[in-house]
User: Which sequence fits this backbone?
């Protein structure tokens, strides 16, 4: 396509798909031309609110007849593969919401088709492209704490608020209320993706997945039964020599919080705070306490529109540049597959009670 033409996007999904649509609409070189959802009334209402000209209830019809160049897949994981394959088979570029699929088998099939179809394929992993994450990555690569040898990551999710809030998607609680929803293991795919981005390829993993809160009583008295794991623990050994302990668990204090502490032989780094806006701190060999780091301006998108999340905008910008300008896309379906392999290995470890071996380390250098 011509560099002067906008990238025309078709969105599949009217829940979190609304957020994706808003981000692309804020991009000066993109245009949201169509949206597809199962409920015709909801889809029409979303399209009217966001001024999207074409609406569909069948993604096959949207892909074949809408004036679009690319498809953003923002549906439950088990629908990612059929939508992406339908789009790629018609030469449409694809940006897929995390996780890539519901299984390694589906993720590998999507990656393989993407590799042979000549289209741009990308993962919508906005936590990887948050300015603070990019700065943390460079800080590690520059040897600011020497050789990282140990890390602990803790993600605390207010599931009571998560179940009650319907702003993002009316069906998002099904991650936990349906046995096939995947729970935190799949819903927090961004955690595993960020770990692979920061630390390279995992060598082996021990994991457990269980239900910690079988029933949650919401503020309005409604009771929600949890049928998929809401508590995940993993012990990952990386080919670099780093050991990482991860805890993903419910915490009842009204907010989602993250804490990632990385220890090296010449210092330490701490990323902590609200999951969407954590603060990065550093402690050197002679420091008695952590000191807060200021994120340099070069890590912020220069043309970030007001009110738009920087990480999400950077994913959209990378995708637009990959399609129009031929720049490499990162993260891609290759990254999505690697994340899927780790998640599935954690689940397999829980089922078998055994440590799972992973890659041979050939992907130890993961691009930014």
Assistant:
């Amino acid at each position: 396509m011509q560099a002067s033409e906008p990238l025309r996007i078709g969105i599949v999904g009217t829940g979190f798909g609304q957020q994706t649509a808003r981000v692309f609409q804020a991009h000066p070189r993109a245009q949201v031309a169509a949206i597809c959802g199962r409920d015709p009334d909801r889809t029409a209402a979303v399209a009217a609110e966001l001024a999207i000209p074409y609406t569909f209830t069948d993604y096959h019809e949207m892909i074949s007849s809408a004036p679009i160049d690319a498809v953003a897949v923002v549906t439950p994981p088990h629908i990612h593969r059929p939508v992406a394959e339908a789009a790629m088979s018609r030469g449409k570029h694809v940006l897929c919401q995390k996780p890539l699929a519901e299984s390694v088998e589906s993720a590998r099939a999507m990656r393989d088709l993407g590799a042979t179809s000549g289209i741009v394929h990308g993962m919508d992993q906005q936590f990887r492209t948050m300015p603070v994450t990019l700065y943390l990555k460079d800080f590690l690569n520059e040897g600011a704490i020497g050789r990282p040898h140990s890390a602990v990551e803790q993600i605390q999710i207010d599931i009571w608020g998560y179940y009650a809030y319907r702003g993002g998607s009316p069906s998002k609680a099904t991650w936990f209320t349906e046995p096939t929803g995947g729970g935190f293991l799949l819903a927090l795919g961004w955690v595993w993706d960020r770990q692979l981005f920061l630390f390279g390829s995992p060598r082996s993993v021990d994991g457990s997945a269980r239900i910690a809160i079988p029933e949650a009583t919401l503020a309005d008295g409604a009771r929600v039964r949890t049928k998929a794991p809401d508590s995940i623990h993993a012990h990952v050994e990386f080919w670099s020599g780093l050991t990482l302990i991860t805890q993903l668990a419910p915490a009842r204090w009204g907010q989602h919080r993250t804490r990632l502490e990385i220890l090296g032989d010449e210092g330490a780094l701490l990323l902590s705070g609200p999951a969407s806006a954590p603060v990065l701190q550093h402690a050197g060999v002679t420091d008695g306490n952590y000191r807060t780091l200021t994120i340099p301006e070069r890590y912020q998108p220069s043309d970030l529109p007001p009110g738009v999340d920087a990480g999400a905008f950077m994913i959209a910008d990378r995708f637009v540049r990959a399609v129009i300008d031929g720049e490499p896309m990162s993260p891609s379906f290759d990254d999505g597959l690697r994340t899927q392999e780790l998640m599935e290995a954690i689940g397999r470890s829980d089922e078998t009670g055994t440590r799972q071996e992973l890659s041979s380390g050939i992907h130890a250098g993961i691009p930014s």
Summary: Residues 361-368 have pLDDT under 50 and may be disordered. The chain has twelve helices and 17 strands.
